[in-house]
Each structure stands twice: as C-alpha cells, then as structure tokens.
User: Fold Diaminopimelate epimerase from Siphonobacter curvatus.
Amino acid sequence: MNISFYKYQGTGNDFIMIDDRAGTFPMDKERIAHLCHRRFGIGADGLILLQNDEAYDFRMKYFNADGGEGSMCGNGGRATVRFAHDLGVIGDQTRFIAVDGEHEALVTSEQISLKMSNVKGLEEHPDYAYMNTGSPHVVAFKENLQDFKVYQEGYAIRYSDEWVKRGGTNVNFVEQQGDQQLFVRTYERGVEDETYSCGTGVTACALTAHVKLGMESPIKIKVLGGNLEVSFEQTSADAFENIYLIGPAERVFEGTVEV
Ligand SMILES: N[C@@H](CCC[C@H](N)C(=O)O)C(=O)O
Assistant:
C-alpha cells in the first residue's frame, strides 16, 4: 500500500513523520529501518507516528533509524509539535503524551519550546557524567571538540561492557565556549552514528554543565545542525524540573512511499 509521509528536521536531526491518527501504519522493525535508510529509503534519523490519544492532543510514537522503538527524542518531540501544528491538530499550545510521559509545548513561527521530563539521578564519574533525560546519556567534556573522533570514541563507550549491560546509551561530547555557551556533538544509540543534533543529549549536557561548571540557566548550545537553548531549575543536588528545550523545527518535503 502507498502512504503519505512528511520529512521534518530540528537542528539537523531529521525524521519521517506519519499522520497515523487512523492507527493503520504497519509497525514493523525492518520496514521502518528500510524507510529510514539513507541509500535505499527516504533517509532519516528516526520515524515518528502522530497518533490519537483520548486524554491528550496527540500521542508521539518514536522509532530510531534501526527500526526499534526508541526512548524519548527531544528534537523529534519538537518536530512532532510542528507537524501537529501544520496539520491543524493543535494551536499554539499543546499537551501530548510520549514514551516518557506527558509533555507541554509552545509554538511560534521560529521556535518550538518543549517541556522535558523532570530529571532525577545525575551520576558523576571521574571522566564523565550520566543521566536520563527521557533517554540515557553519557556526557564527557573534551577540548578541541571540532576535531574529536566522535564516531570512534562514541562507539567505544556505547558498546563497552558496562553500557551494553545497562541497556545502551547515547554519548555526548561537550566543550564550553563561553559563559553561557556549549558546543555539543553526539553519538546516537539506534542511529549508531553521529547525528547533527540530539535534543535529550543537549539537555543532559546543559544540566551537567550547571553541576560541574556552575553554568546558569538558560544555556545556549551549538550543535552541528544549528543552535538550541536549554532552561531549567535545579531542585536538589541531582534533580531538575521545569526543563525546556527550545529551538527551530521545520517541514522539509512530503511525498508518498510504498510500504
Ligand atoms: N535524537 C534524539 C534522541 C533519540 C533517542 C535515542 N536515539 C535513543 O533511543 O537512545 C533526541 O533528540 O533526543
């Protein structure tokens, strides 16, 4: 059968977006991986279904590029809000449900401001920090990040015995570039490559930079695909609330594909 799809991107993290309010999309791992393949398919870091939900404006169901259902995707959340707005499903404010629970968002023509899940349990290790911002993230500070081997080093951590045992992780490398500015590069689990941006990843980096370097909210973050901002409130030594991921998200093209 042929289905309509839309392609969206948020700071270069790109997604196939499907209006699945009828609930008819055939959710099959191989099919989703094929659609996301950059040579044989449409090409994307992930595929997202916008579905109906009784209690919320919509449900966001996110799959990584390998076809497996992912944990929360921050940029995907922002792109799904833009998609829902473009479809006329929502106005300029929304409350929706995703794999990690309820989210709120505000829409302007330039930006989507997405409220992220509260964070509890920041682990501080000598060489890195770890936290779950809806998805699991290792955060390691590096100098001269532009020239750093993100794929090789990220892969080594992601597939180390410890992280395989713990269910896998995304890996973020971060460099401070001013009082309120970070530069972040991310190796993404489920894409198994460096992506141009990772929303839950930059959120983890901002919270880590606050704890380790004393950087205050809001923190601006440069990624390969553009610029994001993260604001937050720290409520105890390892807990954060009112976390917002703010940045652009837009439709790139649309089409039909046989599934
Ligand atoms: N790109 C995402 C992160 C997606 C989740 C991740 N790949 C996983 O399942 O671990 C983002 O913007 O947050």
Notes: The mean pLDDT is 97.
